[in-house]
Predict the structure.
Amino acid sequence: MPTGTLHIDLEAVAANWRALDRLSASSCETAAVVKADGYGLGMTRVAPRLAKEGARAFFTASAAEGLELRRILGPEPRIYVLYGHMAGDTSVIERADLVPMICSIDQLTRHFETLPQKPFGIQLDTGMNRLGLKQAEWAAVADLALGAGPVLIMSHLASADEPGSQQNNAQLSAFRYMTDGLDIPRSLSATGGTTLGPGYHFDMVRPGIGLYGGLPFKDATPVVGLDLPVIACFDIEAGDHVGYGASWTAQTASRIATVAGGYADGLPRSLQPDLEVMAGPVACRAVGRVSMDMLTIDISHLDADPTHVTVLDPHRTVDTVAGAAGTIGYEILTNLGQRYTRQYRGDEPA
Ligand SMILES: *Cc1c(COP(=O)(O)O)cnc(C)c1O
């Protein structure tokens, strides 16, 4: 096993899509967000499995991702682009039959000038202040935009992972104020909003992270596992230091294993000192700093040297590791390196 192995369970991805789909009424479509290469897990494998499960609407961030997805999925599914219609994207949007989610007046103008007959959606800003037309802008261009028949109107919640946050309710009210009475499909919620209840569902929900097993979908089936090979094991004396900056000092004679995986493989330097990995059934603590391609663990308490260790499994999810690194599961997942051998469970090879 020369490199680490990233196990990706496509059956679990499909089960998560079904579970999220069940949270909303049957009249509400459940899309799938596959930006950033399917949250790092491989859009070429994840998207066809989701399509097979019944997903008919997909979201990418960029038009380039949308073009790749169109090649993967063929002509049927609708592909929405969250960056909207950026300068330079016109021909790709047309060729790949993408639906740009227009997010500014500039984009609206660009779309009408270059692809006047082609479908588009509208993004409204209800308080996140990231993308979308603000209330006054929407008031100014709504008639014009609605006259051209947008296929979807959406907004995005900033605090949906905190069910008690006042911002959820405020954004919901703003969205309703801007869109109530329009005869156009509406979408407000990603994974977090999907778990907030039917008032947040409208005509379409757009989960991403929940499909891949991450919070805030608490009932998610875990999707990823990560095993790393051990390169070498050796003894050190009490008082010896381990790793860059000599940040860890052995209190007693210890045995150390050096493992093939570091921050270039998506294991943040900030994981140490709180990372634990499993050698079979036994937890081992990372000691010394995480380096670019390696980390070092204390195996003094093991009966035998391990050949590999497990960083992610159903009990240590991306959110567990994220907690140790002071970040979120999204960031751990999307940074899992390209160096790993990927083993997919649950579909035929593409
Ligand atoms: C990324 C994203 C999603 C999916 O979000 P998750 O939290 O991963 O479910 C949905 N909508 C928009 C606008 C996004 O940027």
Remarks:
- Residues 33, 35, 82, 156, 190-192, 206-210 surround pyridoxal-5'-phosphate (CB under 6 Å).
- The mean pLDDT is 96.
- The first helix runs from residue 10 to 23.
